[in-house]
Structures
1.
Amino acid sequence: MESDEELVNRFLIQLREIAVGYQAKTVLVATHGGCIRTFLMRTGYAKYGALPGGSFQNGGYVKILSDGTDFIIKEIEGLNMH
């Protein structure tokens, strides 16, 4: 089984490759809530442990901007903070 750290590292590599390969484009990336939750904690949106399991509703999303290095969170929908 993959750890949260392994998961988010693999996810960040792919997001960075997408950002570089599709500059100035809008791209949809679909994944499960656990990956989104770990991404938000890794990028500093929330502290580790602050987002409980099941914190993302089905159909929830995060809009981000990226230059291939940094990530700016623009909008979040479907996140339960408690």
Note: The chain has two helices and two strands.
2.
Amino acid sequence: MLTEKHLERYADVLIWGLKTARAGRFKKNDIVLVRYDLSALKLAEVLYPRLLDMGLNTVARISLTETMEQDFYTRSNQNQLVFKTPGDQEFYGNLNGSISLRAPNSITHLSAVDPGRIGQATVARKYLSDILDTRESAGLFGWTLCIYPTEELAAHANLSMEEYTDQIIKACFLYKRDPVSHWQEIYKNARSIKKWLNSMDVKFYQIESDTIDLEVFPGECRKWIGISGHNIPSFELFLSPDWRGTNGIYYADQPTYRSGNYARGIRLEFRNGSVIRADAEVGQDFVRKQLEMDEGANKLGEFSLTDKRFSKINKFMANTLFDENYGGKSGNCHLALGASYSDTYDGDPAELTKEKKIKLGFNDSALHWDLVNTEKKRVVAHLTSGKQKTIYENGMFTC
């Protein structure tokens, strides 16, 4: 398990992530939410006093247990399923930061629940994420999250608890005396890669592997972002493309756990921006119902690449936070179905109105589902000049 020293370093890294993720600076009396699963209590207890010492009004909330979550979806009537908690809108409208400590004791407990009910509840609470998106665009809010090791996660990853914990320690650099300084170095190196990517005038990207042949159009007013404090760990660089230009085949060779369900071998066929066919070796019904959640659920919200030189993750972890940052032998790419990220807009995010998002092809959805491919691949930028430039190969950016 994580030692006291590991927990202290983890808390330090999370606070670095929280500060880095917010465009504006935290001030005394700002409000920060710490949401944690019961199994992450030890980390929450180390993190909480640090936030208080920063002068922040810290609100700690424990997440529903897996049993309570299952009861909610199976016992709720229609009104309860879409119920909006009084006070949440005001609270989220004043929130300046959020740290989530995820430590699930089950990741398949909702497999018997109708995915449509899960989708209804998600859509009903989308207004809260919309509030935070607006506040983040204005520099008033920042967030980060992490994973705390549990026996459940280790078992589904086919790792021992010691092996699973070791992956977290290595990935977050908790074995170093000063992990924050190492994160700052990665942050600096990633900035130069993003500058290189954003210097190109790209018409579209072509992604090719043994199972992928996909065109992704960045669209107007886009920029690559990433390694910004959001998510600990995070090594991906990504953008939210113009969903309307997506065409071809994408395959996720890595399994995925979502909303208490398991899916594997997901193959998506895009035409003119929308998924026209979705198949899966396992969990096909769940996958298809997720894509029917709302109008934007079957469209592209994110395209991402991870450089294996940054990431020390070389095992499947049965958790998207780690799996979308897989380094291994060939790095990874992933795409997300559903919601796009406003901060990939190359301009003042506060000016990115709903109407402007629609015009530029930023996707909107209650869904955001990352699907990962770890195969050896090549990504070629087709420039508006007619030239081609390979930007990613053998798990690394080519700059």
Note: Residues 182-397 form one domain.
